[in-house]
Specification:
The structure holds 2 protein chains of 2 kinds.
Chain A: E1 9-14, E2 20-24, H1 27-33, H2 36-47, E3 61-65, E4 79-84, E5 91-96, H3 100-107, E6 111-115, E7 122-127, E8 130-135, H4 144-155, E9 160-163, H5 166-169, E10 177-179, E11 185-187, H6 192-198, E12 201-207, H7 217-233, H8 237-243, H9 249-255, H10 260-263, H11 275-282, E13 283-287, E14 297-301, E15 311-313, H12 316-324, H13 330-343, H14 347-362, H15 381-393, H16 397-402, H17 406-413, E16 423-424, E17 427-428, H18 438-446, H19 466-473, H20 488-505, H21 509-512, H22 518-537, H23 543-563, H24 575-579, H25 595-609, H26 620-625, H27 629-637
Parallel strand pairs in A: 1-6, 7-12
Antiparallel strand pairs in A: 1-2, 3-4, 3-6, 4-5, 7-8, 9-10, 9-12, 10-11, 13-14, 14-15, 16-17
Chain B: E1 7-14, H1 18-22, E2 26-32, E3 35-36, H2 37-48, H3 50-57, E4 67-71, E5 74-77, E6 87-88, E7 93-98
Classes of the chains: A alpha+beta, B alpha+beta.
Bound molecules: iron/sulfur cluster.
């Protein structure tokens, strides 16, 4: 393998014909798109036009490890999985920190692309140069954990796996792609597990024994030391190491932005879910993703009671979405995480979808007749767990509808239920309630994969001094959490480009793209990221070019969604956030998102992106500035550039 | 006792990682009146030393801007020097929380 962190090859598997081929990963991929999400987005744009529906065999399922995976760069752990999303019908991707991506690279492949559809369930077996499509009839219906255990028993303890659970097989649009079993990592969002299921692909078993070379070890070591020095003084890090992602609870409590009971309550009884309780009563293991010194991964076990013996990896968002369903029993939360991870579901999408159904039940739109006897009330943990199981199996008429995700379920159920459907572009809501925090609200709207807090860093305003905001975004106002408007569109654009770098290089957002000060944030996310990339690849990118790589990938995704029909009207959050004051009292009690401020930030954001503020469409000038001339041509040919760009305005 | 030297007793709720530096989630501090949020931070550093300082100030001289002080549940974003002048009174509850958003 070359000493530049790249294996130099794309592995392509056509599940219809059985053809397995390799292609060179040429400079057209590396130069501008670098790796991970950048390359995945380019391939998806080029190979999956809007005529190809998500479950069409012609849809691609793309696995693209970040450019720095396996190099020893700290927390370089993330692999992108991408496809046209069956949830949003637009660009879809998810990212996982398990070690499978490094294994793929060690086997000699930078990217793995699936196309077509197998006639019967199969798995792909990769052992370095040996690549075979094999029968997976015996794995049908197996949990993600079962597939991983089988693979390690059959092929040895050194293999890594990617798999789907029953939910993916059943084309549940909330299904994720699981890496190394149930408890190591998942590309959760966008229903990519269902795309894998639609191809009859149950698993990928991978062994790679090659080296991933780096160009300049001394430069890598120097950057590594600077990274460790930075996180040693950043107060953001110790709580992560001590509590895992459970640490986020305090922030939600003090700002009163839980979004409990289907995004109605900002303040909510949370005490039973205190991070200290998880740590002292349930934690059995503290670990890390590949090469990460932050070590925020946690496994928990219930010791007594009805869920005794259940273990699960648990992320903060899973706790948050439990509260969305009104569940605050930590043992039920662990049990639910276990269930979702084994059936292969995304906890965020599944939690929100069940919360939607609970509000329908509360309002008589759904009754025990439709729920087949379940009292689907907020906080009824037994009903919540049972509905999750039914969704994964598409068991019963209502579960079959909910398995389509919130947006489609609301369209099918009708009868006014649409007002309870909390999603952006079909992707369920995540993170904290945006009422009272304008830039967060807009960031959920502009994400290219449906509502998402990881597509940007909407929290920069919470860690920035006014003089820094003035320097970076033209006004001190941008550093005012509650009241600022000007500069926030620019801040959002910067933060989207900025965190996209992480997905391109495979750097974890918690380890690089969250921090307690803007200087630490920039040092890790741009400065050190660029140094690491140059040290590993031997290239000489500037920090500006690195930020531009993030901007480029984001624009490719925006263009993809534009080609699928998205406009400014799709960059919006649910009406509830504008119209219904946040309940429960607390610091954000009574808040709504101010529509005028939302629009002003969105317009500034489009202008800074060089997109057309009226339509939200990308412009030729904006795309060509990033070297995306072919995409500009394609959009123009499809009538998807703004009218002014097509020479149709006098 | 003169007006200036009357004690301002504060109950301080320390969120992570400050609780590690103090060995407790809740501590009491006494300041001379008139007192401010900035005085409270300095008192914490004086009592708990280098670790507390590092968490509050990082490797610089200004307060890490991600800290928010809640004075009796009213948030004060500590990202500007004036915010440190926010007065505190005897019997107030002060909570210090890092803006650990990001889930
Ligand atoms: S910060 Fe946490 S989630 Fe990120 S790579 Fe490290 S252990 Fe994994």
């Amino acid at each position: 393998m070359a000493k530049n962190s790249y294996a130099g090859k794309i592995l392509r598997v056509d599940l219809t014909t059985g053809a397995i081929t390799t292609e060179e990963l040429g400079s057209e991929y590396i130069d501008l798109f670098l790796g991970g999400r950048g390359i995945a987005s380019k391939i998806l744009y080029e190979e999956v036009p809007p005529e190809v529906e998500p479950f069409d065999p012609a849809n691609r399922l793309i696995f693209s490890p970040g450019a720095l995976i396996g190099t020893g760069v700290p927390a370089a752990s993330r692999t992108t999985v991408a496809a046209r999303s069956p949830l949003t019908n637009m660009h879809g991707d998810g990212h996982s920190g398990a070690s499978w991506g490094a294994e793929l690279k060690r086997a000699g492949y930078d990217v793995l692309i699936f196309q077509g559809k197998a006639e019967r369930p199969v798995y792909l077996y990769i052992d370095n140069d040996t690549v075979e499509i094999r029968d997976a009839a015996h794995l049908r219906g197996q949990f993600t954990s079962g597939v991983h255990s089988w693979a390690r028993k059959t092929f040895g303890p050194d293999v890594c796996t990617v798999s789907i659970g029953p939910a993916g097989e059943n084309l549940v649009r909330l299904a994720g792609v699981y890496h190394n079993g149930a408890d190591k990592g998942v590309s959760a969002r966008c229903g990519l597990g269902a795309v894998m299921g639609s191809k009859n692909l149950k698993a990928i078993v991978t062994r790679g024994t090659g080296d991933i070379g780096v160009a300049d070890i001394a430069a890598l070591k120097a950057a590594y030391k600077d990274y460790l020095d930075t996180i040693a003084v950043d107060p953001y890090v110790p709580p992560a190491t001590k509590y895992g992602t459970c640490r986020f609870m305090g922030h939600r409590v003090k700002f009163g932005i839980h979004g409990a009971e289907n995004w109605r309550y900002g303040a909510y009884p949370w005490e039973t879910l205190d991070p200290e309780i998880f740590r002292s009563d349930y934690q059995v293991k503290a670990g890390a993703c590949l090469a990460c010194p932050v070590r925020c991964r946690r496994d928990y076990r219930v010791r007594t009671g009805p869920y005794a013996g259940v273990t699960a990896k648990l992320e903060w968002e899973t706790i948050a979405r439990s509260m969305t369903c009104g569940v605050t029993n930590p043992e039920a939360v662990i049990a639910w995480s276990n269930q979702c991870n084994h059936y292969g579901l995304d906890t965020e999408g599944t939690g929100d979808t069940i919360a939607f159904a609970m509000e329908c039940f509360e309002n008589g739109i759904l009754t025990e007749k439709e729920t087949e006897g379940l009292v689907l009330e907020f906080g009824n943990e037994a009903a919540w767990l049972e509905m999750t199981r039914r969704i994964a199996l598409r068991q019963g008429e209502l579960a079959n509808i909910l398995a389509e995700g919130t947006k489609r379920a609301a369209e099918k159920i009708g009868r006014g239920s649409e007002r309870f459907a909390m999603h952006v572009k079909g992707g369920e809501m995540t993170a904290g309630d945006p009422r009272g925090m304008p830039v967060r609200a807009v960031s959920y709207a502009t994400s290219t994969r449906g509502s998402d807090h990881l597509r940007s860093n909407p929290y920069i305003e919470e860690i920035m001094r006014p003089e820094e905001a003035l320097q970076w975004f033209g006004t001190e106002e941008a550093a005012d959490i509650k009241h600022g408007v000007r500069g926030k569109g620019k801040m959002l654009k910067f933060s989207e480009d900025f965190v996209t770098i992480g997905d391109i290089l495979g750097l974890c957002k918690f380890a690089y793209y969250r921090s307690a000060t803007f200087p630490y944030l920039y040092r890790k996310g741009v400065h050190l990221a660029t140094r690491f990339y140059n040290a590993c690849t031997g290239r000489d990118l500037s920090e500006e070019e690195m930020l531009m790589a993030g901007e480029r990938a984001f624009n490719v995704e925006k263009a993809y969604n534009t080609r699928c029909g998205a406009t400014r009207a799709d960059d919006v959050i649910p009406r509830r956030f504008f119209e219904e004051p946040l309940l429960g009292g607390g610091p954000s009690g009574g808040a709504v998102v101010d529509l005028e401020k939302f629009d002003a930030i969105l317009t500034e954001y489009y202008e800074d992106r060089r997109w057309d503020p009226d339509t939200g469409l990308p412009t030729r000038a904006g795309l060509e500035r990033l070297g995306l001339n072919a995409i500009a041509d394609d959009l123009e040919a499809r009538g998807k550039l703004p009218v002014s760009d097509c020479g149709k305005v006098e | 006792m003169s007006e200036q030297r009357r004690a301002v007793n504060l109950s301080v709720h320390l969120y992570p990682p400050l609780n590690s530096a103090a060995g407790s989630d809740r501590v009491q501090i006494a300041l001379d009146a008139p007192a401010t949020v900035g005085d409270a931070l300095e008192a914490l550093v004086a009592r708990y030393g280098a670790e507390m300082r590092r968490y509050l100030y990082g490797d610089g001289d200004t307060v890490v801007p991600a800290w928010t002080a809640f004075v009796n549940d009213v948030p004060v974003q500590l990202n500007r020097d004036e915010a440190l002048q926010t007065p505190v009174s005897d019997g107030d509850e002060l909570a210090l929380i890092l803006n650990l958003a990001g889930g």
